[in-house]
Specification:
By secondary structure, the protein is mostly helical. It contains 17 helices and no strands. About 70% of the residues lie in helices and about 0% in strands. The chain is globular. Keywords: Membrane, Transmembrane, Transmembrane helix.
Length: about 500
């Protein structure tokens, strides 16, 4: 049975009683320790340091990007310390949805879960797009090949994820280490040949190219830097996914805080080296702003086209690491919401032998791939590439920022409403850190709306949210189940 007695009376929703077999069919297997969690967190993010961060360089220059990155680092430090506290107190697969469910009730939990759903499904799609971009450059194939690369990538890495959690984490560790090693090779190769003033500062006011470099540090002032906030987010986006592995971690109360904080500090150091050295060698910041493969462009200038392609095959592991880890994330995120009844329940059924959420993995992958295909074939290869690389990236960032607002608010409400809740780990930044994360996330959303490429995607996010809310209002809220996340929230609300 549910573990907390009869289904509770919660305004606006109804819980159904389920038997033990319901949860037996939705079991997970514990495997991960601190190192595996570190690899999952870093691996999920590392593609953002291979592609994506550079797309805003023309709208504020290198100095603008550095300032934006500093602001975003403050946001993520406040966020990850808040998440570390909440995840240790609520070690359930639901992650952000679980935190918001306890703090704000079923509707708050569902809206937060929907924000993360947009983030992870579309982030995987954008990373897959960059994988195709790298492969197209390596093999010199025409644009028409891109959908083939996407389909093959999804088939391979969804396949690895459904083969079992042990294999999934083992692959994550290996490709994350290879991705970090490839970046280290790039840093050591670029450093002796870097010319910061000549190449990194070759963007002038209004986004014009300065052929001889030595331009202003902030060519468009503070406003130009703030416009780059959504792109700086890409350097760290998805580190917050670690709590989704809570029920597959041996000691989540101890290991989740360690894993997410180690991962965050690793990524801060790596991000600063990437934006400094990648922009400080040819082709320079201006041309990097239009590149789908900035690390490959850097390798090409350092070693020539032939050897660069060999190195780019290795560099591709950075994108693969993130793609693989984010598939893991949306599989668990969909599984958790489905197990609790917010999404259709069949999506949470796990494989009887391997205990992997196969239906959730396949469902999320089909949605992401479908979005890419619709954009590509509706707009054509040239315009489709711009929208997938730009608008979908911004849509994923919007979903992330909305979830960060909800998680910051959840932390504050949990501290205020339930001060005596057991907290095995406490954030050293407390309410200040959560408030900073919430405020900077709102600021980033405000600047996203000033981006004309992003506005195209607003309708897509609105449709996504409308369909999700409609399903929950008509069906899901009448069929909730006391999953571990829901049972914990009910116990806290009852004060038991």
């Amino acid at each position: 049975m549910t573990g907390v007695g009869e289904p509770p009376d919660v305004e606006g929703v109804r819980y159904e009683t389920v038997d033990d077999r319901y949860f037996e069919r939705r079991g997970l297997k514990r495997y991960a320790g601190v190192f595996s969690l570190w690899a999952l967190g870093v691996g999920a993010v590392i593609s953002g340091q291979y592609s994506g961060w550079n797309l805003g360089l023309a709208s504020g220059g290198w100095g603008g990007l550095l300032l934006a990155t500093g602001i975003i680092v403050v946001m993520y430090l406040g966020l990850v310390w808040s998440i570390a506290e909440m995840a240790a107190a609520q070690p359930h697969t639901g992650g952000a949805y679980s935190f918001a469910r306890t703090a704000m009730g079923p509707w708050g939990g569902f809206i937060t879960g929907l924000c993360e759903n947009v983030e992870y499904v579309l982030t995987a799609a954008v990373v897959c797009f960059f994988i195709g971009s790298y492969l197209g450059a390596i093999f010199e194939t025409p644009p028409e090949w891109q959908p083939v690369y996407w389909i093959v990538a999804y088939l391979i890495f969804v396949g690895i994820n459904v083969l079992g959690v042990a294999l999934s984490f083992q692959v994550t560790v290996v490709i994350t280490l290879v991705a970090m090693a490839c970046l280290a090779v790039f840093w050591t190769s670029a450093l002796p040949q870097s010319d910061f003033a000549r190449y990194a500062l070759n963007v002038g006011a209004g986004g014009v190219e300065l052929p001889d470099g030595h331009g202003p540090f902030l060519p468009d002032g503070i406003a130009g830097a703030l416009r780059q906030l959504p792109f700086a987010v890409w350097l760290f986006l998805a580190i917050e996914q670690l709590p989704l592995a809570a029920e597959e971690s041996h000691m989540p109360q101890r290991d989740l805080p360690k894993g997410i904080l180690l991962g965050m500090f690793t990524l801060i150091g790596s991000a600063l080296l990437v934006i400094w050295l990648n922009a400080s060698i040819p082709p320079g910041a201006f041309q990097l702003a239009a590149s789908g493969q900035p690390i490959l462009d850097g390798f090409a200038k350092l070693y020539g086209e032939g050897l660069a392609k060999v190195l780019a095959v290795v560099a591709l592991t950075g994108l693969i690491a993130s793609f693989h880890a984010i598939i893991f994330a949306y599989g668990r995120q969909i599984y958790s919401l489905s197990r609790a009844g917010y999404f259709p329940r069949w999506l949470s059924i796990t494989n009887a032998k391997r205990k992997t959420p196969d239906a959730a993995l396949l469902g999320g992958s089909l949605v992401g791939l479908l979005v890419m295909m619709v954009v590509w074939f509706t707009l054509g290869s040239d315009q489709g590439a711009k929208v997938i690389g730009g608008a979908l990236l911004n849509m994923a960032v919007f979903g992330a920022m909305a979830s960060y607002v909800m998680q910051g608010l959840s932390f504050i409400l949990l501290r205020v409403r339930f001060p005596n809740m057991e907290r095995p780990y406490r954030s050293p930044l407390g309410l200040t850190g959560a408030g900073l994360a919430l405020g900077i996330a709102l600021l980033t959303i405000a600047y996203q709306f000033q981006d004309p490429i992003y506005r195209w995607g607003v309708a897509g996010v609105a449709v996504w949210f409308a369909l999700g809310i409609l399903y929950f209002a008509l069906v899901g809220r009448h069929r909730l189940v006391l999953s571990p996340e829901e049972a914990f929230a009910v116990k806290v609300e009852r004060g038991t």
